[in-house]
User: Fold this.
Amino acid sequence: DPSEGITFDEETKIQINGKWEDVPEDFNNALNIYKKLNSTPKEHEIELEVHKALIARSQGKNDEFVLRYLKVCKNYNLSKLDYIILNEEQKAYDIAITAQNLKELEGLFQKFEGCSLKKTAKNFIEFQGYKNSDILVIDGAPNSEEDKAGKSFVSEKGNLFDKMLKAIELKRENIFIVNGVPWRPPGNRYPTEQEINICRPFIFNLIKLIKPKIILCLGEVATNQTLGLSQSIIKSRGQWYSLKSSPYYNNSEIEDNIYVLPTLGISYLLMRPDMKKEAWEDMKLLRKKIKEIIIK
Assistant:
């Protein structure tokens, strides 16, 4: 029985195996609508999917929970939602949104205990660059050298990054730089989806505070985090996206359209120098957009 061990209390709490938890607001809305549809032939089918989703959530299987949630919402027209913010990410959002300036945001991010990577990393990667820049560069997770320095783009990675900027007549002083995940994963492993998403509210609020006109996402982690995608950087790169089109962001909180360009990460290019040609094509797109909307 998929509902065994699960009960609801006025649709605000879920009791799973004796433990009460908050119901995510968006999922709660879907449940409310589901109850209004309890006379439909699909009643049992919907209920089964809802319970399977809740069981996955109780077991910490957040990816499965999201997929089942979306299946319920989309397949049964319970909601038009395209994305769900899990409880952990909502807590991070509630913290990040209190920052009124970049210094406050950086302090809150650095003190944030919700990302497990903080426990194993040596340092938090600090924000750097020109805070009034129209260009924001978002990198993924730091490597071991960046972790030691507490700063992004050092050593060989920094040298290549500077060369790429120089090729389109930019310097670090002209841009603002942040890591989408500011703590190094152990062994330089790929960060988990949960680790990426838990940091996203801080990046979101940084974007609102800086109000850039252009965002350059270096690599898959930064791209998928910023745009709410789940695909290879090879597929994402080389084309412009609108930040306002991302389902994660509240359009009313983004005053102007922001152009987002995904490209290959610097660490990837150091391992695959044969891909520098593709990266150069992306940098030419960036240079052209800068001339169109910033240098008029």
Summary: The mean pLDDT is 80. The beta strands are 6-9, 13-16, 19-22, 128-129, 135-139, 176-179, 214-218, 241-242, 259-263. Residues 55 and 61 are 9 Å apart (CA to CA).
